[in-house]
Design a protein that fits this description.
The chain is an all-alpha fold. The chain has a single domain, classed as Farnesyl Diphosphate Synthase, CATH 1.10.600. The chain has 14 helices and two strands; from the N terminus they run ααααββαααααααααα. It starts with a helix and ends in a 10-residue tail after the last helix.
Length: about 290
């Protein structure tokens, strides 16, 4: 199967676990709305690419972890859009979950997606107990305290947050979890793959900061200008547009250089660079040309 088809199939299988004639229909609809149709699926594609670079000996584990990574990402978006945080009416070019279903259902949708992520790994990797515990721990560290994406969200509630720490936790943590989980799903030590995820995660956050400053809601499918409006840390605010663009490119190259030796190192490096070029449309970075 094509890479994208594998990921979408794994997500559809995961969402089937939530469907029941006896379940709350509004919440079931909200879960579907939060996950489908998706965005670029950048994080699970990265997980899959790392596993493939390591020969992907356990494809069932890879598919389960890809689904879990995307479900955790979707949960973070649902919660990030809530009125108590970004108060965003749009996500991926359509109404955000709280705009479409109400704030209470949105909170529960995010909660349910987090639970579903771990249930997916528990069910699909049960026949590989040697991998299961390591995968669960890797995912937990990527999303929880003290330095996962939950911690990153909490940084917005505190004054004087260092930009690097905010980026590492709010965005980078799940990217690092994605690369490390891809390695773990292939039965490879995950720790050497952390640097790749850290680098891509920081680059992606810088790209998001640039888009927030220079793009439009129609183009990126969500409101822009939120960093200034909410007084959030931003690479553009700290480094300027030119400095942010240069930092993005620098971090991509550092990430590529960090890829451990593996059977598919060169194809993975090519993929990482290609994905990075898609982070920000070229016309939005004229100062970096």
């Amino acid at each position: 199967m094509e890479a994208r088809e594998r990921i979408e199939g794994a997500l559809q299988a995961a969402l089937k676990l939530t469907q029941s004639p006896e379940g709350p229909g509004l919440l079931e609809d909200a879960l579907q709305h939060a996950v489908f149709p998706g965005g670029a699926r950048i994080r699970p594609r990265l997980t899959q690419a790392v596993a493939l670079a390591c020969r992907d000996p356990y494809p069932a584990a890879t598919d389960a972890v890809c689904a879990a990574i995307e479900l955790l990402h979707c949960a973070s978006l649902v919660h990030d859009d809530l009125p108590c945080f970004d108060d965003s009416p749009m996500r991926r070019g359509k109404p955000s979950v709280h705009a479409a279903f109400g704030e209470r259902i949105a909170v529960l949708t995010g909660d349910a997606l987090i639970v579903l992520a771990f249930e997916t790994v528990a069910r699909r990797v049960a026949h590989l107990p040697a991998l299961q515990s390591g995968l669960v721990v890797t995912l937990c560290r990527a999303v929880g305290m003290p330095s996962g994406i939950v911690a990153g969200q909490a940084r917005e509630c505190e004054p004087g947050v260092p930009l690097e720490r905010y980026q590492r936790e709010k965005t980078g943590a799940l990217f690092a979890g994605a690369t490390m989980a891809g390695a773990a799903a292939a039965g490879v030590s995950p720790e050497p793959w952390r640097a790749l995820g850290d680098g891509i995660g920081e680059a992606f956050q810088i790209a998001d900061d640039i888009l927030d400053a220079r793009s439009s809601a129609d183009r990126i499918g969500k409101p822009v200008g939120r960093d200034v409006a909410l007084d959030r840390p931003s690479a553009v605010r700290e480094l300027g547009l030119h400095g942010a663009a240069l930092r993005l490119r620098e971090r991509v190259e550092q990430a590529v250089a960090s890829i451990p030796d593996c059977a598919g190192r060169e194809p993975l490096a090519t993929l990482v660079r290609a994905q990075a070029l898609q982070f920000v449309p070229a016309d939005l970075l004229p100062v970096a040309a």
